């Protein structure tokens, strides 16, 4: 059974600090996705990572993928309050976009 | 473009009642999906439709049925609702295929369902 595990599940940090969210998965996957969800809202796509070594950046967020280690990271640089949300990673083990999601990381950024 | 729309936004049912959740997308996507989200958990795939006229089970299909009415619309039906089906339901769509490898799924606003 495929497992997608995020670490940590809860993260409280101060503005201006850096931190990393980890996403481990237990089987090979064609691609990996990161999504953001604000409380009571829908999911918003952040990144699609397609190959080993892929790195994508958008503002203060940077995502990377290591398919050999079955690990993706989401790095937050100089956090700001607006980045407070729940972040999900998801993998696509069958290449059919039947996504399997991690549990989510609830990120709270305090002034 | 409205993107992915869902109706209703909220619904309360009694155990044993039936209902249909509606989803429509205006992005001309081939693939559509239904997920449920429970507290403290990620989304779990209920059913998906790779293209018009086809549907297939996901991770948690029991207690649900789906209909891909046309390319735009994908409905989810609960025939006899149970308290365990209390959840937030999200519909999504994507342009899946070799020519769209970089595409992602686009999610609707969700339906919050409570079964008493």
Specify the helix fraction band of chain B.
Answer: under 10%
**What is the percentage of strand-forming residues of chain B?**
over 45%
Oligomeric description of these chains: heterodimer
Work out the number of β strands of chain B: 11
Largest sheet of chain B: 7 strands, mixed
Report the major sheet of chain A.
6 strands, mixed
N-to-C CA distance of chain B: 36 Å
| Helix-strand sequence of chain B | EEEEEEEEEEE
Main interface by residue count? A-B, 21 and 26 residues
Shape of chain B: globular
Q: Total number of helical segments of chain A?
A: 0
What number is the mean pLDDT of chain B? 92
Average pLDDT taken over every residue of chain A: 93
Radius of gyration of chain B: 14 Å
Number of helices of chain B: 0
Structure class of chain B:
mainly beta
Strand runs of chain A, count: 11
Structural class of the helices, strands and pairings of chain A? mainly beta
Compute the separation of the termini of chain A in Å: 41 Å
Q: From the alpha-carbon coordinates, what is the Rg of chain A to the nearest angstrom?
A: 13 Å
* Proportion of residues in helical segments of chain A: under 10%
Question: What's this model, at a glance?
Answer:
Chain A is an all-beta fold and 111 residues long. Chain A is 0% helix and 54% strand.
What would you note in describing this structure?
The complex is a heterodimer of chains A (about 110) and B (about 120). Chain A is mainly β. Helix content of chain A is about 0%, strand content about 55%. In chain A, strands 2, 4, 5, 9, 10 and 11 form a six-stranded mixed sheet that branches. Chain A has a five-stranded antiparallel sheet with strand order 1-3-8-7-6, with no helix packed on it. Chain A is globular, with a radius of gyration of 13 Å. Chain B is an all-beta fold and about 120 residues long. Chain B has strands at about 5, 10-15, 20-25, 30-35, 45-50, 55, 65-70, 75-80, 85-95, 105, 110-115. In chain B, strands 2, 4, 5, 6, 9, 10 and 11 form a seven-stranded mixed sheet that branches. In chain B, strands 1-3-8-7 form a four-stranded antiparallel sheet, with no helix packed on it. The model of chain B has no long low-confidence stretch (mean pLDDT about 90). The chains are: A mainly beta (about 110), B mainly beta (about 120). At the A-B interface, strand 5 and strand 10 of A face strand 5, strand 9 and strand 10 of B.
């Amino acid at each position: 059974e495929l497992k997608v595990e995020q670490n940590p599940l809860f993260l409280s940090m101060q503005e201006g600090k850096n931190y990393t969210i980890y996403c481990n998965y237990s089987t090979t996957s064609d691609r990996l996705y990161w999504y953001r969800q604000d409380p009571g809202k829908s999911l918003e796509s952040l990144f699609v990572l397609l190959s080993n070594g892929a790195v994508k950046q958008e503002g203060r967020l940077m995502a990377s993928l290591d398919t050999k280690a079955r690990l993706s990271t989401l790095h937050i640089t100089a956090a700001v309050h607006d980045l407070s949300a729940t972040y999900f990673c998801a993998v696509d083990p069958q290449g059919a976009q039947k996504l399997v999601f991690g549990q989510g990381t609830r990120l709270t950024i305090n002034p | 473009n409205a993107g992915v729309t869902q109706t209703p936004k909220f619904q309360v049912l009694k155990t044993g009642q039936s209902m249909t959740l509606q989803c429509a997308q205006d992005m001309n996507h081939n693939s559509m999906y239904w997920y449920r989200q429970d507290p403290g958990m990620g989304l779990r795939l209920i059913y998906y439709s790779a293209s018009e006229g086809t549907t297939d089970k996901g991770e948690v299909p029991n207690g649900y049925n789906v209909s891909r009415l046309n390319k735009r619309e994908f409905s989810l039906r609960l025939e006899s609702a149970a308290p365990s089906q209390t959840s937030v339901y999200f519909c999504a769509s994507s342009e899946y295929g070799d020519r769209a490898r970089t595409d992602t799924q686009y999610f609707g606003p969700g339906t919050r369902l409570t079964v008493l």
